[in-house]
Amino acid sequence: MAATVAATAPRRPAVSVRRTLRRYGWTIAVYVLFALLMVATVVVKPDYGTFEWNTLTLAALPLAFAAVAQTVVVLSGGIDLSVGPLMALANVIALRAMVGHDLGYSIAASVAVLLAVTLAGAINGLIIVVTRVPDIVVTLATSFIWAGVALLVLAKPTPGVPFDYQNLAQGSALSPWIPNALLLLLVIPLVWVPLRRSRAGLSIYAVGSDRNAAFRSGVNLGWSRILAYAVCGFFAACGGLALSMTTGIGSPLAGTLYTLSAVSAIVLGGVSLAGGRGGMLGPIAAAYILSLIPAVLIYLGIDPNYGQMIQGLLIVIVVMIGGLGAVLRRS
Amino acid sequence: MSARLTTSLRIVQRNSILVLIALLVALAGLIEAIRPGAVNASWVSNILEFAAPLGILAAGQTLVVITGGIDLSVANVATAAAYIMASQSPFGVTRAIVLGLLVGVLVGVINGLGVAIFKVQPLIMTLAMGLVATGSLNVYEQAVARGVPSVPAVVHTLGSGTVLGYVPVSLFLWGAIAAILIAGLRGSGFGRLLYALGDNLEATRLAGVHAWQVLLTNYALCGLLSAVAGLVLAGTVNAADLGLATILLLPSVAAVVIGGTSIFGGSGSYSGTIVGALILTVLNSVLTLLDVPDPVKQILYGGIIILLAAAYTRVLGRD
User: Are A87 and A236 in contact (CB under 8 A)?
Assistant: First the structure.
């Protein structure tokens, strides 16, 4: 429960700098890594411009939402291996609802999709709390279930997302350097910041940090965990809708890769898989890093097939350095 | 609760494997009820043949889960081992099989290094190594092999041959692995250390055990078993494509959980996992018989796994 302690402790400037570094060190490092990668990209590709930047924000948008979805659950001490299928579910329901309609109708449909998939996420949480089966087993099983439901909604990839709706992410209303896909990320703080400051949001951290202590402080463990899974469902739905906007199609298998990528992004983003520690800024930057790697490979003229291998290696190296740091600090 | 009921509940708890076997028989009965005459020697032979790769894959998973870890790279390793074996087979079958198995050991050793020495959470370490294995395999496929190589005859026989008409060849391999694992987990020092590490890592370390050596060996063993499972699976389906074992990841974890091994480590057995793998395979056979569309099958499969795991946690008082 680092968050509450820091908020209530009296502030002393000298300690505060060190504490800020300790608390946000990893996040800062992730942003530095992202900046370095961007510099390297511009060096490799001198004509890097708004088009490439726009492409990157589009590629990172669904992953950023997936990572944030996973983060909420991991903060509560769980893990959701059904994030990808939940995204696919949102994506296919959206296509079914929107095809052949105008923007207003599509946005109304999006709200319905958000509600439906939030409910699906809550069901994950409910099963875990009621059956007391470990999170990883339940969500592995529900990943099959939601993927099955997505296939029932839509059997095969189908185009037909209204163009106006696609333009919500694909255009750039303000400036070419601030594409809509970047602005859409604002959904994350709009939902997460108020939640985090509320009693309910704090209880998510509490449950993930120390379940016994949370219970003895009067936190309702069951509801807090279900809430975390529901919020995860909400962000996964955002990810699915982001896929609709960026790809223009509905695909029952679209989300498959995002389960693993999201876990990668949160680990790279400095969220502890043990729960209770971490925020949203790190995972979002990590989503951008992971999306930038394949692009850089293409600019370098390297076979993009190396992308997955390099992503995996990057994560292995990062977590090993993180682990080594923890081991050295202890000894 | 009456005394007799409590006693019988306790007997059930002590012998949970009997409950699992009863469930297995009930599922077979269900198949017989749906289609009379379906449960015969060749059906049993089929079930065993399809359960063998899963059972071997879940063997490695059992070892890791007993120590309180999890290996999410087993399916990727199995696929990589099978693919590399198949694509190298024109240059000598023995060499190809050894290479395939080495792939498993290599990934397992790196997993073990990460978990045991760098203290990375098993989930993320194995997930990332799974990505690396699959990514490397894609590169290998593009650069060297291309396409779907054919499986050498020896491996095909191992995966789908039968002796005396009904006994699958893979059953001998699976049986040998099972015997070693069951005896080893119960009787050997290494086996007991796995339980000790899963129960209380810190206490075991303070008792003077070199935990990292045990964990490293264990993950390497899991990698090796995954590779073996991949080879058997390639023999069973007689093809080695890039998505060969992907569908076995969930069942490999589910078989362990249904078999009564605690996902938090410290307790469980391979005999439970064997029955778990058989239950999942028979369940698949039931769903195939029901002739429902694939998505519905998938939903039922996931739902039943949750129900089984829930029954285990609730009724048998395990977690």
Answer: yes
Kindly give, in sequence order, each residue whose CB lies less than 8 Å from that of residue A62, ignoring residues fewer than 6 positions away.
A87, A239, A240, A242, A243, A246, A258
**Could you tell me what percentage of chain A is helix, strand and coil, using 3-state DSSP and rounding each to the nearest 5?**
80, 0, 20
Determine whether the interchain pair B298/A145 forms a contact, defined as Cβ–Cβ distance below 8 Å.
Answer: yes
Query: Cα dihedral sign for A204, A205, A208, A210?
Result: negative
Domain residue ranges of chain A, discontinuous segments joined by +: 48-302
> For residue A1, what pLDDT is reported?
41
The CATH architecture that domain A48-302 belongs to is Orthogonal Bundle (1.10)
> What pLDDT, in 10s, does the model give residues A258-273?
988 898 898 888 888 8
Q: Provide the 3-class DSSP secondary structure of residue B42.
A: helix
For each of the domains in chain B, give its residue range(s) and CATH number, in order of start.
19-29+38-314 (1.10.3470)
pLDDT number for residue A2:
46
Q: Which stretches within B141-168 are classed as H helix?
A: 153-160
Contacts of A264 in chain B (CB under 8 A): 127-128, 131
Subunit contact B254:A306, Cβ cutoff 8 A: no
Q: State whether A323 and B119 contact (CB < 8 Å).
A: yes
Give the mean pLDDT of B215-220. Answer: 96
- Minimal Cα–Cα distance from B158 to chain A, Å? 30
Rounded to whole angstroms, the Cα distance separating A134 from B11 reads 25
- Residue B132 in contact with residue B76, Cβ under 8 Å? no
What pLDDT, in 10s, does the model give residues B94-144? 999 999 999 999 999 999 999 999 888 898 899 889 989 998 998 888 887
DSSP annotation of B90 reads: G
Please report the ipTM that was assigned to this predicted complex: 0.82
Distance CA B249, CA B58 (A): 9
pLDDT tens for A207-218 read 998 889 999 988
